[in-house]
Records
---
Amino acid sequence: MKKIIALLLAVAMLFCFAGCSAEDTNSGAEAKSDLKVGFIFLHDEQSTYDKNFMDAAKAACEEMGVDYAQKTQIPESKDCYDAAVELIETDGCDIIFADSFGHESFLIDAAKKYPDVEFCHATGTQAHTAGLDNFHNAFASIYEGRYLAGVAAGLKLNEMIEAGEITADKAKMGYVGAFTFAEVMSGYTSFYLGAKSVCPSVTMDVKFTGSWYDEQKEKEAAQALIAGGCVLISQHADSMGAPTACETAGVPNVSYNGSTLAACPNTFIVSSRIDWKPYFKYMISQVEKGEAIATDWTGTIETGSVVLTDINETAAAEGTAAKIEEVKAKLLDGSINVFDTANWTVDGKKLDSYKADVDTDANFEKDTEVIKDGVFYESDKRSAPYFDIEIDGITLLDRNYG
Amino acid sequence: MVNKKAIKKHREPPFHVVKRDDMPWWGAWGIRVATIIAAFLLVGLLSMALSGRSLFETYGIMFSGVFGRIFEGRTMMLWKYLQEIAILLALALALTPAFKMKFWNCGAEGQALMGGLASIICMIELGPKLPYPVLIIVIAVTSIVAGAIWGVIPAIFKAVFNTNETLFTLMMNYIATQIIAYYVYIKGGGSNVINPVEYGNFPAVGSNDYFVNIILVAVITIVMFVYLKYSKQGYEISVVGESQNTARYIGINVKKVIVRTMVISGALCGVTGMLLVAGKDHSINVNSVGGQGFTAILMSWLGQFNPFIMAVMTALVVFLRIGVAKVADTALLNSSFSEIMVGVVILMLVGCEFFINYSFKFKHNKKEAKV
């Protein structure tokens, strides 16, 4: 009995001490405004894709002096709705942001339920047809970043050809994609066109994993591509699978979502990524000012949304930095258009007209003309990419819609 | 002689474990309540250590995670909490008749998924065609039948061929998961997500979407209690569970009871699938049940097969799951933290049963020496 009393006393004392320290921790830094942003992430910092958002969220909120809350590992299901409800009900958030494509419909349901809260969604397609004042889509012209990364890849191939490591007709790149889906297709096509702009003989093989994040599958896909004769790998999937497979095999890699230099010091060339900070700052400042957030917001090189990481001189070809700067300037002044129809063909023919599936519907109907004056205008009719054409020079080794 | 005695003494373990039947009810519940308190304390301390917040603050965050800003009159989170209890409890209730019969149904996950699949198919395919009341009835009937079928297949094999039901029901889960994956692939398009379907949703009461689910599960809880405790079928289940030979001797058709009970168990899992799909998600994916079919096994055990105790245990575990997740979120800890904590608590609760059923007998002479 004595022992039990002693134990209870010990516990009681613990509570007392805990109570004392509670007062200390509360006196933290005061936020500048009482605005609070809630972030919903598909995975956590293990995923390069989500880490890119998480870092930007933290930086933007700190710079703007606003408080924020986050929920990680939120699947693309009703869980997203529940997470939004929790962020609003419990944390009192005024803006909700979700980072994954499949979150969209569930976020729209939440937006209907809470008309006073602003909802922003990355990579989504439905804002322009949803008819809600408080639901917004955002993306960036990442195809321009991919194009620039493609230029770096093309220069590397040229270097390999010049060094006699490969012949020009063996300049084949490999690409690990997630789904056979416009966002991915737009990404690899712009990457390929970037490479082709400096290395005309380049071809590319693409494999799909059917998942945004599956380290093992991405690794195996990269290994299969390398075994199939690909001399340079890039990817649009979120794990370290492909980059580490490249490092092991000694095959150069153009990465995505951020630098993989630390894990791949010998093979990482450069990475394109979307910097979400400009959008987060825009979104917060619009709400602070009481002004509307754009229904579709497309970040560009100009807004600082499309960026390249530092080039790894160990792996990159000589003169890559200078060439990228040159091409970037041309993209900025409009003298280069990534999807200029003069630079690509479908079944040997140039396209004059193409209807893309811009408005989301159950039947994936092709509804909007997107080629004008010889250019396929990407991210123009809505922020999320809709380029889903299979062009010559790129071979899809498989298809995976999930 | 002296040597031999010394060896014998050396070999005697310091204590041994003895089965006990003499634990009074208050002793057993004393141990359980003490375990729960200890578990909460442990979770609080671990959360405190990792989040760098004080214990009081940690419990405060847990509370706010579960109940939201309830003191400001916002009851949404409370309803959400009750809804999550309802789903887990419904699955635990569904498993209970089977467990009481010592039929180890590990297939709640799959049975609920099949019920959910039936619901979503009706919602998508028949939604635009049928009037709402008819649609709801069709959804209910098909979900119950789908769950029952998924439950009765292993039962028939058990009754006729005496197959191992644990493995059988587990395997049925994988088949159900793959069927769902295939259905989502057909209907999902683009990024593998079935967008919420607007047809056949359970009605909201006021602004409360979950009211129907919660009431339905409350009713099921009471009915299950009465069924197990006072009905003839409930008695038959107990007898078959205690001894199949006894059951046969007193004229119970054991095969019939096994099959009938698994129909009920599967049907209730099917109902849970319907509550998830028509009552909550309005969509489906392979993780719709989210492993709760397995947690429910533990809930049924911890509840001693008594629906009301089960409800209390479920409320506790769900509280921890949501509360600790909030602690992890606010401290920017990894979200797996909550799952680890819930695992620790369940382990403690299961472990405490050992101390109720067994006692330690310490070496006699050591005790003497102590005094």
---
Amino acid sequence: MDVTVVFKEGLFGSLSSVFDIAKVVIPLMIAMQIAKDYHVLDYLSKFIKPVTNFLGMSKESGFPLMVGLVFGLAYGAGVIVQSAKDGNLTRRDMVLLSVFLASCHAVFEDVVIFVAIGANGWLILASRILAGVLVTYAVSKRLDRINGYDDLLPQTDK
Amino acid sequence: MLFQSIKQGFRNGIDTMIMLGKIIIPVYFILSFLHHTPVIDFIARSFEPLMGFFNLPGEAAMILVMGNLLSLYSGVGAIQALSLSTFEITLLAMMLNFSHSLFIETAVATRLNVSGTKIMALRLGLMLASGVIFGTLAGGVLQQWM
């Protein structure tokens, strides 16, 4: 085994893949920052009331839902914790939001990185959003039936 | 204001790339080194029956394990270092999109006071379900189409 060949292969291969990803991630980050600074999500979350309705959440869940969907789990969780502190979210909203965001978060970033290395993005994006909606819908129907959330809470008290 | 946003976004992009690079480059290096040893062949052969169920090659097991234990980006590095087809990359990307960085992200999810085990089970379940639907069942059609 020729060490220099392996080293060259690793260096060029890894740098070119990082560069390929940079070409899509940097423009995406710029777009996301503009969306954040101009409060685009604030505005959009007013129009997703039918979605939050369908998922069995209150309309206050719209904003945290959008933030998590676009910016990721950490941001989404931050907004959820804050809204809960402000008393805008019910226990039910929190459970449903967690279920949705666990399966479906930071969709643009996660999909774009794989598109950069040759995957079909539409298929991934569609499957992820569809799965998030279906699972959340199923859980919300189940919460209606069992009328309690004990099943979804951690077993130990915090 | 717009200029400020663009500048900040660009800076975020560079930060993300540095973070990605720190993961992707070492993973890529290690895998391309292992490529010249029998290790990858051994792993590939061991996992062939299991991964074959999803219409994936044996070495894909490594990508799924790395993506779940470490992060999505180590999965990206591993995909790049192994030569895979568009169908295989898309299927692995889909499976990893559902379930990745389980330790970190489950910890974040439990901050919302939901059961971490259930959230983890949900994500792994979605990963396996997407593998069965798009790999096992629709794999033949998708391979033709891509």
---
Amino acid sequence: MRRRNGFLAAGLVLTCVLAALILLGFFWTPYDPNAMAAGAKFDGPSLAHWMGTDSFGRDIFSRVLKGAGATASIALATLAIGAACGCLAGALTGYFGGPADEVLMRLNDALTAFPSILLALVVISILGPGKKGNVILALGLVFIPSFARVTRTAFASLRDVNYIKSARLMGASKARILAVHLLPNTLPVLLPALTIGFNNAVLAEASMSFLGIGVTPPDASLGYMLSEAQGMLFAAPWYAGGTGLAIVLMVFSVGLLGEGLRRRDKGVL
Amino acid sequence: MKYLLKRVLTLLVTMLTVSFLTFAAFSLISGDTATAMLGTAATPERLAALRAELGLDRPLLVRYGEWLLGFFTGDLGVSTSYKQPVWDILASKFRLTLCLSLMSFILIAAVSIPLGLWSAGRRRFEGARTALNQLGMAVPPFFTGILLSWVFGVGLKWFMPGQFPDAKQDFAGAAAYLFFAAVALSIPRIAMTARMLRSTVQEELGKDYVRTAISRGNDRGQVLRRHVLKNALPPVVTFLAQTMAEIVAGSIVVEQVFVIPGLGQMLVSSISNRDYPVVQAIVVILALWVVMAGTAADLINQRIDPRLRLGGAA
């Protein structure tokens, strides 16, 4: 019997709406996000400016759209590095085992003992702060261990299941077993892990940019904008509100999506 | 006893590994320290002279040994941007960050454990509670921090955002200020811990011993507190130790929001200044703290669960 899965539906709808808005922001925003208007400083939210304007008279809604685009694209790039390397390492070590597995897992234990932001800060201070590529690389590296761990557990648990054994007996190549037989069956675990990874990437990028060692203008992301907004908290509280809500909404919708995916596949693996 | 000894030994090895890795990573770039200090005045001769002065021309292991010896005698080197001994700069900041972290930790444990237990025993509005939980995890501490300083600082004027009171003159004010920071830091972790406890408790509730206990006429709440909590606690204690690590990381951001002159703020400004001796010292201190929290959790679990003491898996 299937119960209705409200989380999956709500998460999908919210995520799609946000993704559409962000995509729209790449091509069109109501105002130029960097255009300053002397006559419209510190306007509160109105029909003309949905989230008001800041100290330079810039339209905050347009800035949030652009910033969310920057944050989401950095998070996706981070996720791509972390998930690709982590899943590959986890799949190989989980399926084949052996000494490489032991060594990698011990290394993994040592790395996960570090809080992720601290690790990212160390990497970024070595690579040099303030560049977009370095932020992506630092965060991507930091997220590899968690993906490797999840994937390894999933692959290792299916290694000796009957359908894999029979695929092996039929002479399927190792690559085919990994990609065609194992991968689809580990998706119930991997997909929620991806949503959690995306959220962690968004939050980590926002924190780093908030601290001023992540992305800096002209690629302002939501985190950087929030630190800018904090300075205008007395005069334009709607700037901080709009920017912060954008982050919360983004993480919340993807979180709901992850929860929905987890519930749908509960008990499969 | 044997277990304790083994744990302490592992702790020492991990600490050595962590400190060596950090030291090696920063040594890789320490050529930059000399370059950064000289700036545009850098010539090959001057660089070589400065490196000799900073001791950067000697082998890595020798420098690590010296640094380690210094670490235990309170000599962490000299900050390149403040020209002061690193320990003198960090001592007071360390105390502040320690206070903030302990405050948030107590807050998280005190709120999330009752919340998780309460939530585990109920089925009504399960969806709404899960959604609320997701929302709690989605709010980044720096945004909560800004909201709190807007409502309680700008609006109600309970404290002055950005002006941390001197703890010696105004102890209550400083404590209240830290409390707001601790709240901002704790909310996402409270949500995560409560969720974790809820799912482990629910798993335990489905087991035979619970059914037996209840069918023998025991009170549900009492079974929950006396029997289930004891079995559900070890994973949560481990999780709380990881929380300690996240608090340490979160304090970096929250200190920036509330302008609290702690280790985190120092770390961020030192990274921007490329002041590597300071960055290195802070990273090692924070990492050691995290490793010690993990060991403490293992030892506590071993007291809660006698099965772990016999060396078996729980």
---
Amino acid sequence: MKKMHKRFMALATVAVAALALAACGNKSNSSSSNSTDFKGQNLKIGIWLGSDQEKKGMSDMVKGFEKKTGAKVTEKVYTDFNTQIQADLAGHRAPDVWYMDSSMYPFFQKQGVLQALDKNTINTDNFYPTLTKAFSTKGKVYGAPKDTSTLAIYANNDIFKKAGVDVSSVPKTYEDLIKWLPGFQAKLDAAYGKNKVKAWSYNQDLARNLYILQHNGGTPIKANGDANLASDAVVKNLDMYKQLVATGAAVTPKDIGQGDNGTAFGAGKVALMEEGNWTYQVQKKQYKTNFTVLPMLSYEGKQGGMIFTVGWGEYANSKVKPLANAWIKYVTSKNVMKKYIETTGTLPSRPDVAKAAKLTANAALNVHLNANKYSTVWQDGTTLVTVNTSYQNFVAKALTGQTALKAAMTQADKQANAAISKSK
Amino acid sequence: MEAQTNPSKKRRFHLTRGQAEAVQGYAFLLPAIIIVLVFFLAAIAFALYMSFNKVNMYSQTYTFRGLKNYTNIFTDGIALTALKNTALFSLVVVPTQTFFALLIAYALSNKSIKFKKLFRLIYFLPTLTSSAALTLIFMFIFNINGPVNGFFTGLGLYHDPINFLQQPEYALKVIMVMNIWSTVPNFMTVYLASLVDLPDSLYEAADMDGASSWQKLLNITVPYLRPITTYVLLMGIIGTFQMFDQAYIFSNGSGGPDNSTLTVALMVYQYAFGQMNTMGYACALAIFLAIVIYIVARLAEKLNGGNGLKDM
């Protein structure tokens, strides 16, 4: 029996070895690292696609790059980016270049998975400085901003007309807005029936609220990454949203059973919304809404908004870094970016492209472009996503007045910090 | 050694029948054994190892930290909130789904019912729907502008529509309704399969004694199905304690509003794949959950009486 066991083990060993060899057979030969001729090389890009237009824009760029370099580009489209990229990075199978949201950049950088980009790949002088700064750490640039989006106020002209209110009467500050909303809501109720159309839709999301919470030196997240939502300055700023909700005219899309602002606005359920430029084409083409785009409001004398930007990051363990560099340089070059943003309807990360595409001539998009000047980039250290999850979990009951602001934010802090402390 | 190996060398390919069968047996088992080893045992062992470490998946570094991940479960109230939600969910869902599954199976096994196959098909449909699609459908049904609110306000039960999805006191209950609705058919089928084997003579004897349908259900069907009930309870407990997808879709992964839909499995996911390097804590939570499920399942088995699954 012992012999048999031995023979069996030998057989098993051979079988396992054969399996292992077969698995290794698939590995492609590594390419020489310093070549400039990219023929036959393969570049894996990790992206997500938000719309058909983005798909078209991406496939145009891939085709152009393949034609120019002779290399082959493989797309990996992520559906749940933050989870999937982590699995890929942990398994050392990440794409050579990938999309990186400004809010996630500090985390990736800290993990050491990003390759610093050289001057030849990205010339920071060509880009809006706020955007390249969002992907820089200690003087080195780790990401090339591919495009940008900003927030603005959208007003539904038809609803305003039916309510008998002029769009130009929309206040320019939050203080005035809070006083103005009840009267406007009363007119909407008179025109459409009670609460059929709401005056204002907003979001309970740090991605939208961060600039307000940071107002007057508020620090929702401490320098060491701890959540600090219950601090006096932040709670005082948050009170603005509470007053907004107390008007009875401001709702979140979910309050009225809509998926997001754009859907609620397109469906004619809200007269005004705070939304990014990605909704511009959707409102125009899909919902055929008749709207006016207004600049963001001021709060205590300071105009503010959010900037969302996505950059191309390069994998530190990429086997084809020269090719990856060439890709980043190509897709952020003036003409390619111009074509891309014209296809997708996003805003360029380069001022020269904005000029070439004559975006400033479009009054609506110009409002979004100008927002770059006063808005805050969606980024705040490595713990932002965790703090935001916690914030979203508890902010609703605070804004409706069920719980005191301070108490709810203390709970949010406690929950976020429990997670943060475990990672230290 | 030499002397010992020589005789066997001659008979190398002449195994006894028993030995040959053993080789054959192992050969057939091999694929399954490899899968079990790699995907179950190795994975469990690795999770156990990680649960005692602080893990950074990016740099593949493991720092031993003893039982700290486990003690952390009890030091903050969040894991306990999650456990409370999960336990409440299980406490409501498991008895309800078992009761309805038994009742429907009993009704469908009745010989005088017509279109039995059609009913079985219709009742089984919810189980065929993917739970992700189902969650979205229920989110539509319970939407503030949805049919449920329309129905109740139409009846005049209340005037202002309730936001079932956003209010902490309703959110988990909606998931409970959804879960019961989608799991009952599955367990009903299990009960039906066993009811087919129930000898008619028992019912006939009861009929002679003048028993009502209700008495027959309580005194014949339920005791006869006790081992099946044990199985249904176990599967129900395991399924409800591991509830993840519905809570995830419902709350967009946050477990909100106000932690009302935070389940232990969702928390494991949050810690494993959040923006933090807390895979170790996630593993500790997962193992803690496994232990809780084991204890609760054993308790339920004991409460149901009999020898549990051994009766089957």
